[in-house]
Specification:
By secondary structure, the chain is of the alpha+beta class. It contains five helices and six strands; from the N terminus they run αββαβββαααβ. It has one domain: Cyclophilin-like (Cyclophilin).
């Protein structure tokens, strides 16, 4: 059986508290909503820069699936997105979903994040260096995840 590195990493991030007060900083309407740059830049160095290998694509990137963002092969770190539309074109690019939102209301919540006008102006490199201080300065009304836990 092929290891599920992505699921293990996601669980590790949740247990660490990585997704506490984390901003939803990239929204592409009808496509994805992304998060994964934490408030504390040291946490990004610990996890975001510590890449894991890809998993095989076993399910399609359909509405509600949760997937690691990547900058290339075997470059998944800590940035996650939820598909807010059917994006099966991502399958052949190697984006392997790690889970699925179980409620259509949750998908809609991710699809309708606040302050969408700010997303196109944000500099991810700066955010990785400064954390939430950058987001709070540049786009103080961004939607965010208050916390995540394993239930």
């Amino acid at each position: 059986m092929v290891p599920r590195r992505g699921r293990r990493r996601f669980k590790e991030l949740v247990e660490y508290g990585y997704f506490t007060d984390i901003k939803l900083y990239r929204v592409v309407p009808g496509f994805i909503t992304q998060w994964g740059i934490p408030g504390n830049p040291a946490d990004y160095q610990k996890f975001g820069e510590n890449k894991i290998k890809d998993d095989p694509v076993r399910q399609s990137n359909l509405t509600g699936t949760v997937t690691f963002a990547t900058s290339g092969p075997d470059c998944r770190g800590s940035q996650i997105f939820v598909n807010v539309g059917d994006n099966d074109g991502l399958d052949e690019q190697g984006f392997a979903p790690i889970g699925r939102l179980t409620s259509p209301d949750m998908v809609q919540a991710f699809a309708s994040c606040h302050d969408c006008s700010s997303y196109v102006k944000l500099d991810q490199s700066q955010a990785k260096q400064v954390g939430n201080a950058y987001f709070n300065d540049k786009a103080p009304k961004l939607s965010y995840i208050k916390s995540a836990s394993i239930v």
